[in-house]
Amino acid sequence: MNTFNNFWLHRNNNWIQERSNQNGTELVDPHNTPALGLILADNMGLGKTLTTLALILKTSNQARDFGNSSSTFENTSRSGATLVICPKSTLTNWETKIKTHFVEDSIPYLIFYGRGRKHIPKEELKSSMVVLTSYDIIGTSGNPLHANQVTVELLKIEWYRIVLDEAQ
Fold it and tell me: Single GO cellular component annotation (predicted)?
C-alpha cells in the first residue's frame, strides 16, 4: 500500500552513496549535469549572507574560468562576478559583511547603485568578484520613463552567478 510516507522515506541510503565520491567527502552528479540554481532559505540571523560570500570565494577559480570563456548570447560578454540584487536597505549589510569577515581585497566588490554607477566602466564590473545592486536599479529596466537610466541589463553581461536577496 502506498502511503504518503512511502514517497518520502528512503529504505536505505543508496541515494547518498550514488551521489558521493569514493571517500564520501563530496557529492557528485552521476548524470554530469550542471547545477542551474539553488535556494538558500533559512531563518533570519543564521548566516545566509556569510554562507553566500564563502561560496563566492570558494568558487572563485571556476568563476574566473567562466569569465574568460565565450558567452552563449549574442552581443554579450561573460563575467566571473556574482551579481547580488537586494533591497536598498541591505546593500550596506553586504558591504559590511565583506569588510568585517574577509581579508581585505579577498573579495573585490563594487556597489552599482546611485548616480556613481554611470561612471563605473563595464570592464571594472566584470573584473569584480561581487557586484552589489538593488531591486530599484533592476526595476527601472524596460521602463520608458527611465530610458536614460544606466542599468545592469544595458551592460549586456552574462554573470557567473546571480543572488536574489530577500526575494520573497
Answer: nucleus
